[in-house]
Every structure is written in structure tokens, then in C-alpha cells.
């Protein structure tokens, strides 16, 4: 009886597998080759996840600069040719970005995007993340960073020990949250310090779970994550925004808009998502920038020289009484810091260009000198890590070289080549085209500000400089890669005489 039942189940499984094999997608004339796979749903997912770069390089060698990979129940057509990336980025009408993000946003942040053509915050982000508005945010952030660093628990002239990532998360998350979402006035009775401590804790818990949520793990199966998200939602309600002071104009304007549209439930979830986008990559990149500076004394020396030069040029001094303030223009002139930040982003960011074809499309692949047919509904994918770690574009791509983005006269280096041809998209940590990060200008100044203030006011050293720290590939295609361990550092506030 049992044997009979088992045989029936086995026969059903074998026949469904055979049907699946027959029905599986076949390469049609003019289409990119399909990487063979034999496991239903998973496809090549496990090999990709284990080491995406090695996996993609292997396929590129075998199939050329464009090939289709099946994983997690979907087909992704990878384009590895950097000369074709600008073509994909430009074709925003047929190759849509936002449609690809709808399921992930729903799964992770629990709201539905307001249409495939509506940018984040209805376009307000683009307006408020540049020009004179951005200048006010930059100045606020500089002030808030100094408050956190110089007037809180870090204001200690004795050596203290902590994890570098923990330090960066605490400082950047607190200052960033205050700059965007303001603070409760003293009269409210809310203890802002305690609150920020909780916000950092909740943010970090959710952020660590982010890649698992993207992979489809139910939020309730991850201990405390649903609660952390719910805690954070509370701060983004209309009522709480009204109670706080110094809220950034962009947030106030968006809250007003959603109030008019009677979409207040959406407000807290969208703002939470924006807050996550603003913090997640920035914190991890700040960590890596400081880590590389601590590991490379020549980078620290060059950064210190540039910071001192800018202090002189702006007639400021570190007297421990007045705050240091560099404008965006001042910071734009700091090309050494620019190069350090660019080199950090080249190494730590795994950004992508993900697009879905809204209709059948012929993609011209430059290095193959021919076009490929892309079917309506197909997903096109580019992993910029392949360019960022390409030894033909960057010599010794695994190494941190602080001056990689500097010419010999100290000006920014922007010409990089492959096979003798200029690579236009040589550095894309912020993505490209319509999905290019709207917060990129702010992000770069935040990173510079943290480096400037820490180098000016603190002495730092890695406790174990020989310890090998690796980048965890768990967030491939989703931004900054976290370190596999949090290296311990010693730090103390410098005594100003
Ligand atoms: C080092 C820091 C940062 C990096 C590396 C980074 C990177 C990126 C990348 C690669 C994307 C595009 C995603 C895609 O194409 O799939 C993106 C989107 C986005 N970023 Fe950033 N980002 C950073 C900081 C920020 C900051 C500070 C903000 C906010 C102030 C921000 C807000 C956003 C938003 C809202 C989007 C979504 C845009 C959309 O869906 O249209 N990011 N970011």
C-alpha cells in the first residue's frame, strides 16, 4: 500500500519535472543564449548567490557579453559589456525601472508604489537634494555630526574601544535622522538621546534583515524585525512630524501632499523607506571609507593635508569652541577626499541597472557589434561590480588606492579605458538613468563630513590592523556590502591646546 502510494507520488514528480523540462524557455533566433539549468524555481540561483562575480565572469567567458540566467523563478538577461550600459540606461521608456521594484517594496516596506512613472516622493527628492536646498541640509548635517561627536558620549580624551561599524552607525544614523526628520522640543518631555538610541537599534535590526526580506523570508520569521519596523513607522506619522522641530522642508512638503491626498497610512511607510534608503548605503560606505583610511596611512596623511589646507582657505581653526563649517563648494575643491570616497564606493558598492522590457526590444550590444532580441516582460540586469573590478579598466582592482581618481596635477581623474576605448560608465555606485540615486550629492558630502570631523577631532587606530575583513556578498545588486566582522578600534578626542 505504502509502496504503491510512493510510486504514484514519484511518478507524479517525474512527469511534472519532464513537463517542466519541455515547457522551459528555449532560446529563439536572435535572442541571447540561456545558461543551462536543471533545478526548477532555483535555477542557477545558488551558484549566483555563492559568488556572483565569479559566476557571471564564467558565463561571460562561455557565452559572451549577454546571456540569460534563470533564478528564483525569473529569467534575468545579464549584460556585462560596459559600452552597452549607457544604451540601457537611456532607454527608459521601453526598459522600465520602477515596475521591477514594485514586488520588493511591497514585500519589504509593505506599501504599493504610486505608479511606474512616479519617482520617489512624487519628485520632491530631486528638487530638495540639490541646489540651495541641499546646501541647508549639508550645513544642518555638519552641525548635527558635531553635536553627536563632540557633545555626547564620544567626547572623551581617554582611549575607548568600540566596533568601527557600530560607531559609524550610531553617529551617522543619529545625525542623519535629526537632519531629515528633526527633533522633539525640550517642552515635549521626550528624551531625544534615548529616542535616537532606540532609532539606531531599530534601524540596524531591520537593515541586517533587509537582504533576507528581499529573498522572500517572511518578516514574522525574523526575530524582532517586524516590531522594529513598526516602532520606526510611529516616528513617521503625520502627528509625530508635526510635533518635531527642524524637520527638513522636503519631508514637510511631502507630508502636506499626502495629507491633501488623504494617504496618511502611506506616508509613514514611504518615509520609512526613504529613511532606510538614505541611511543604509551611506552608513556602510562611511564605515569602509574610515576603515580604508585607517589601513592606509598614506591616505590619512593626504586627507589631513587637504583638510588643513581647506581650514586655512576658509579662515577657520579648531579651537573646540566654534563649529567647523565647510560649504558644498569648499568640499567640492577637496579632490583627495573625492578620490578616497570614489575609491571606497568603487570597492564597496554592488549597484545594478535592473530594467523590465515593456515591449519587445532589440538591444544593440556594442562589444558584440550586433543586436539581440529581448522579449516583452524580460528583465535586463547589469552588475556594475563587474566594471568596478575589471582589471582592464582598473589596475589591481582588488586594491584600495586612495589616489586612483586623481591626475598627477591633483585634478579629478575621469578617463578610464577598456580595449583602448573610453568607458563612459566607469564608476556607477549610484546607479544610472532614471533610477540613479536622488540622494547622491548629499551622500558624498555626508561621507566627506564624517571623515573631516573624525580626522580633525579624534585619534584613531585599528586594534588589530592585520585582521582580514571581507565584504559579505549577501547584498549583491542592492548597494553597499557589509563587512563580515566589525573591526575593533581605539579612539579618543584630541586635546586642543
Ligand atoms: C553612499 C550612499 C548611497 C549609495 C551608494 C546609494 C545608491 C543608490 C542606488 C544604486 C540606487 C538605485 C537603485 C537601483 O537602480 O536599483 C539608489 C536609489 C535611491 N537612493 Fe540612494 N544611495 C546612497 C545614499 C542615498 C541617500 C543619502 C539618499 C536620500 C537622501 C538616497 C535615496 C535613494 C532613493 C530614494 C532611491 C530610490 C530612487 C527611485 O526608486 O527612484 N540614497 N541609491
Automatic annotation (TrEMBL):
Record-listed heme binding positions: 437
UniProt cofactor(s): heme
InterPro entries registered for this protein in UniProt: CYP450_sterol_14alpha_dmase, Cyt_P450, Cyt_P450_CYP7A1-type, Cyt_P450_E_grp-IV, Cyt_P450_sf
GO CC term (a single one): endoplasmic reticulum membrane
Chief place of localization: endoplasmic reticulum
GO biological process: bile acid biosynthetic process; cholesterol homeostasis
Binding annotation for substrate: 107, 281, 379
Pathway: Lipid metabolism; bile acid biosynthesis
Protein's cellular compartments: Endoplasmic reticulum membrane
Keyword Calcium annotated: no
Keyword Endoplasmic reticulum attached: yes
Family per similarity comment: Belongs to the cytochrome P450 family.
UniProt name for this protein: 25-hydroxycholesterol 7-alpha-hydroxylase-like
Amino acid at each position: 500500500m505504502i509502496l504503491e502510494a510512493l510510486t504514484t507520488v514519484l511518478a507524479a514528480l517525474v512527469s511534472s519535472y519532464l513537463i517542466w523540462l519541455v515547457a522551459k524557455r528555449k532560446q529563439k533566433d536572435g535572442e541571447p543564449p540561456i545558461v543551462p539549468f536543471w533545478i526548477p524555481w532555483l535555477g542557477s540561483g545558488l551558484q549566483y548567490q555563492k559568488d556572483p562575480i565569479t559566476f557571471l565572469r564564467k558565463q561571460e567567458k562561455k557565452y559572451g557579453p549577454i546571456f540569460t540566467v534563470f533564478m528564483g523563478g525569473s529569467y534575468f538577461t545579464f549584460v556585462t559589456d560596459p559600452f552597452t550600459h549607457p544604451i540601457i540606461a537611456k532607454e527608459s521608456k521601453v526598459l522600465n525601472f520602477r515596475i521591477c521594484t514594485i514586488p520588493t517594496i511591497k514585500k519589504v516596506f509593505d506599501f504599493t508604489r504610486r505608479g511606474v512613472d512616479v519617482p520617489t516622493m512624487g519628485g520632491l527628492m530631486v528638487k530638495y537634494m540639490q541646489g540651495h536646498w541641499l546646501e541647508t541640509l549639508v550645513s544642518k548635517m555638519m552641525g548635527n555630526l558635531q553635536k553627536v561627536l563632540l557633545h555626547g558620549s564620544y567626547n572623551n580624551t581617554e582611549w575607548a574601544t568600540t566596533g568601527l561599524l557600530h560607531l559609524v552607525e550610531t553617529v551617522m544614523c543619529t545625525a542623519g535622522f535629526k537632519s531629515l526628520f528633526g527633533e522633539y522640543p525640550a517642552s515635549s518631555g521626550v528624551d531625544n538621546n534615548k529616542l535616537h538610541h532606540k532609532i539606531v537599534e531599530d534601524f540596524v535590526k531591520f537593515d541586517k534583515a533587509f537582504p533576507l526580506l528581499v529573498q522572500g523570508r517572511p518578516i514574522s520569521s525574523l526575530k524582532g524585525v517586524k516590531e522594529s519596523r513598526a516602532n520606526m513607522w510611529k516616528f513617521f506619522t503625520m502627528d509625530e512630524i508635526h510635533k518635531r522641530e527642524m524637520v527638513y522642508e522636503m519631508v514637510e512638503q511631502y507630508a502636506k501632499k499626502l495629507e491633501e491626498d488623504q494617504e496618511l497610512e502611506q506616508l509613514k511607510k514611504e518615509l520609512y523607506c526613504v529613511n532606510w534608503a538614505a541611511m543604509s548605503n551611506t552608513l556602510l560606505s562611511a564605515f569602509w571609507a574610515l576603515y580604508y583610511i585607517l589601513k592606509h596611512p598614506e591616505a590619512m596623511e593626504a586627507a589631513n593635508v587637504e583638510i588643513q589646507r581647506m581650514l586655512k582657505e576658509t579662515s577657520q581653526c579648531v579651537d573646540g569652541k566654534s563649529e567647523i563649517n565647510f560649504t558644498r563648494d569648499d568640499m567640492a575643491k577637496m579632490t583627495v577626499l573625492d578620490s578616497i570616497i570614489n575609491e571606497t564606493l568603487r570597492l564597496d558598492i554592488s549597484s545594478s541597472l535592473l530594467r523590465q522590457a515593456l515591449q519587445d526590444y532589440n538591444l544593440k550590444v556594442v562589444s558584440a557589434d550586433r543586436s539581440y532580441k529581448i522579449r516583452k516582460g524580460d528583465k535586463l540586469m547589469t552588475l556594475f561590480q563587474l566594471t568596478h573590478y575589471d582589471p582592464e579598466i582598473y589596475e589591481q582592482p582588488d586594491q584600495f588606492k586612495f589616489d586612483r581618481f586623481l591626475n598627477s596635477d591633483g585634478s579629478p581623474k575621469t578617463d578610464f579605458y577598456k580595449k583602448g576605448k573610453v568607458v563612459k560608465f566607469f564608476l556607477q555606485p549610484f546607479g544610472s538613468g532614471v533610477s540613479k540615486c536622488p540622494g547622491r550629492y548629499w551622500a558624498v558630502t555626508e561621507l566627506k563630513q564624517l571623515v573631516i570631523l573624525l580626522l580633525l577631532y579624534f585619534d584613531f587606530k585599528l586594534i588589530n590592523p592585520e585582521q582580514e575583513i571581507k565584504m559579505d556578498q549577501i547584498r549583491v545588486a542592492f548597494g553597499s556590502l557589509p563587512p563580515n566582522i566589525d573591526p575593533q578600534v581605539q579612539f579618543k578626542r584630541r586635546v586642543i591646546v
